[in-house]
Design a protein that fits this description.
Blueprint: H1 5-23, E1 27-35, E2 38-46, E3 49-58, H2 72-88, E4 96-105, E5 108-116
Parallel strand pairs: 3-4
Antiparallel strand pairs: 1-2, 2-3, 4-5
């Protein structure tokens, strides 16, 4: 259950990101996959590639862009959570994987394919 206005805004950006990617041909698998070590906003297929997508937003860029807020610690959590997902869903274990970012800076969408590895 969403508790705060910030969570509601985050959900609206995740929905918009999903629609954007579906319009590009991605196939949705799961939203907000979580385990003890972290959460992945969107998991989708891009042809034969399993894509883990982090969605971020910022109202202003005074302290950097939304994508720049995904530091090494967050990347590590995403990697661990993705590994957990793959181990629990054997049907995806043979696919190539990548990590993409959909960021919104002042409401403008930016898509970064292969944002980190």
């Amino acid at each position: 259950m969403l508790k705060s206005p910030t969570q509601k805004v985050g959900l609206s950006f995740e929905i918009a990101a999903r629609k954007y990617l579906e319009d590009k041909g991605f196939v949705w698998i799961k939203s907000n996959y979580s385990q003890a070590g972290g959460e992945i906003d969107l998991i989708m297929l891009d042809d034969e590639t399993l894509v883990f997508i982090e969605v971020r937003s910022r109202k202003n860029n005074a302290y950097g862009t939304a994508a720049e807020t995904i530091g090494k610690a967050k990347q590590s959590k995403l990697l661990n959570t993705a590994e957990h997902f793959i181990l629990s869903k054997k049907e995806f274990s043979k696919l190539n994987c990548r990590f993409d970012v959909v960021s919104y800076d002042n409401g403008k969408l930016n898509y970064i394919k292969n944002a980190f590895s």
